[in-house]
Amino acid sequence: MPSSKKRRRGSTSRSPSTWLALMAALWMVACSGKTKQAGGLEVILETDMPTPASFDAVHVVIDELGADAGWAGVVDRTYIIPNDFTLPTTITLLAGRTPNQEVLITVQPLLNGQVVVERVLQAQVPASSVGEVIVDLSSKCLNILSCPVMGDSCQPDLGACGPGSTAPVVAFTPGVLLDAGVPSTLSDAGQAEAAPNEAPDSGVGEAGQASGGEAGDASTGGADDAAIPESEAATGGSDGALADPCATNNGGCSPNATCAMTGPGTNSCTCNGGYNGNGMVCTGIQSCATNNGGCAATAKCTSTGANTNTCACNTGYSGNGTTCTPINSCATGNGGCDTHAMCTTSGPGTNTCTCNAGYSGTGAACTAVNSCATNNGGCSSSATCTVTGPGTNSCMCAAGFTGDGGSCSPILVVTGGSIVATKGVLMSGVVAMVTDENTGDAASILTASIAWGDGQTSASVPLVGSNGAFTVSSSHVYAATGSPSVVVTVTDSSSGATASATFPATVRPISIVTEFMVPNSPYLGGITSFNGALWFADQGDHAIDVATTSGSVTEYPVRGTSDAPLAVAVGVNNDLWFTDADDNYVADMNTAGTVLSENSPASSGSFPFDLAPGSDGNMWMVEEAGGNVASIVPSSFAIAEYHVAGSSPYGIAAASDGNLWFTDTGNNAIGVINPITHAIQSFAIPTPSSGPDGICSGPDGNIWFVEINSNNIGRINLSTHVITQFAIPTATASPFGIANGPDGNLWFTENGVSKIGRVTTTGAFTEFPVPTFGSNVFGITAGPDGNVWFTEQSGGTNGGQVCRITP
Hints:
Layout: H1 2-10, E1 24-26, E2 40-47, E3 57-65, E4 71-80, E5 91-94, E6 101-111, E7 114-115, E8 119-125, E9 130-137, E10 152-155, E11 160-163, E12 170-171, H2 202-210, H3 230-234, E13 257-263, E14 266-271, E15 275-277, E16 282-284, E17 299-305, E18 308-313, E19 317-319, E20 324-326, E21 341-347, E22 350-355, E23 359-361, E24 366-368, E25 383-389, E26 392-397, E27 401-403, E28 408-410, E29 412-416, E30 419-422, E31 427-436, E32 446-451, E33 457-466, E34 469-476, E35 485-492, E36 498-508, E37 513-517, E38 524-530, E39 533-538, E40 543-547, E41 553-557, E42 565-570, E43 576-580, E44 585-589, E45 595-599, E46 608-613, E47 619-623, E48 628-632, E49 639-643, E50 649-654, E51 660-664, E52 669-673, E53 680-684, E54 692-697, E55 703-707, E56 712-716, E57 723-727, E58 735-740, E59 746-750, E60 755-759, E61 764-769, E62 777-782, E63 788-792, E64 801-805
Parallel strand pairs: 1-5, 2-9, 30-36
Antiparallel strand pairs: 2-5, 3-4, 3-6, 6-7, 6-8, 9-12, 10-11, 13-14, 15-16, 17-18, 19-20, 21-22, 23-24, 25-26, 27-28, 29-31, 31-34, 31-61, 32-33, 32-35, 33-34, 35-36, 37-64, 38-39, 39-40, 40-41, 42-43, 43-44, 44-45, 46-47, 47-48, 48-49, 50-51, 51-52, 52-53, 54-55, 55-56, 56-57, 58-59, 59-60, ...
């Protein structure tokens, strides 16, 4: 490396911490005599690393190339820094017996016995002159100890592996300072400079003189010595006796080896206990590298010297190092968890903390959960939540409610009724319905108050009912139309429980009744809406009459002057159907008033009365005297009769369940027939001898009917078949016909008192007197004009009347 050569020859100024020159005089003497060649080689060791911090010893191996092209060892020695030498120094090789002897130089700096750098190079030892070669122990080659190509070693200029080519040898120049600050002298080269052509043996004396010694002085070494360091030669006795090689530098053995003299000038090197090696290089045995130094697998082995170590259990384990057991951290102080937490071992010396049920937090800190603070503790919104412990609570239904606390139902539930009133007309009947969870409560302990929404209040209203089902009934007259808000409050005097309902009432303008005279018709029957007009039976004129919505009447005579049509209905074939009870037949008529077909039941005198279209595509009728329910096929007019024992059916209506429902006066029941299977059922009316008569399907999907004898309006639930009765406010009203009105209420005729009644689906009544008292109001229907139409059998001076009432 040129820069290194320039520094070496150009100046005596050098930093010891930067450059190291190691000096040992190694003499290579010819085997055939005691003379030596006049040539030699100075080997300069340099480094950019501080010592002994970077390395504390240098192992030097020098081999010479033999005649058989094999390498023979000349020097193999380890020098300890600073025990074996004091900086500065150098290594000098004298020429062997052959000219230009080739040597292989291996230099290994050691730290704690471990090789940290390795430099390998070849050089020639000049036979008749002195040369110099530099071995750069560069930090760039630190720990690059093996190369993929045999014979390569780290090259300082590359900092990487490269071929170990022959090193350049620089010519010796006398008097010039060496790299280590030592002047080059003739003692380095014998007579090389003084007499390069003299015989080899004269060089011994010259060399001795040049170095200040006598010819043949022990400092020159014996002729048979292979390699004797200068310092060792200098100590030789004048008698020529050889010293013990182990006495100096431990005989070239490692400081960690035992040197044993094996003969004159020879010795052996054996690594001490705890060290491995060839004796010259001994490396401390790393006991931790085998079986973890005898430590447990869960322990850390720490080297404390050659083949010695200590064992310490890893974190999370306890023991003496050779035996280590996992630490159960939960066993001490609950693993650092809160006293209200569960400690779970997750590994040696580690654990997790989970708050117990009823507590929340990190596990290291847990606080009791107030379960009532969230969703009322799972209690009903009508219950009181009480904390009973961490995360636990009880639920108790509030006053006026019953249940387990998780679910609470009001003891009393008030449901507002449907109140439809007419301005200035008394409205009476059921205002609200009440359910009582305490089914044993008697009606007498319940009272209601009604705020009618017009500033008027009814107090202490008694309830009617039993088994937890009650109604609140009262009466009121509204002075103005509108939608007042009604509030009904019910109180249980025994428990103090209260409940209320708020709902709107409808107050309509005054209803107007208009009567239209039907001349010469003293007895009018049933009525229905058909083809945009009102069609009704005219028994007196033996006809079917048609009235326009303005009251204009047209008559269509039927078979003969003795016929007396009684009931009418719109047919499944879009004709008008009617019955003649007295003449025992059923017929249909088109919109032009022409009778198209007719037929009589097989049973004579059966008195066919009411009609209704069936879901099976047939028309159905009841035979009052025959006790039959019969079907008529429109295409053939074939009649099939189905007898109901003990019955006296009067009215019939089609219901939303696809069946035909009928009133049965004879059995005091409501009957039903399936039009497909013809199965018949009968449901008794609670009031004996109630006299069920007219029947219709109501706006609520249930069947409604009148009880002419018991003065009630009845309702049967299609699903439960429960019959509910609502008393008509006017006694002896004798209700007859009933129809589903255009306003969502039920309208009916009160034959006994000449009134038209209206009842809501919850039982609130309003009654309207007709202008002509004693007119025997009969049939009723919803008109095509949004009004209610009805017939009066004998309302006029010389006949009946067809009438209209605004709802």
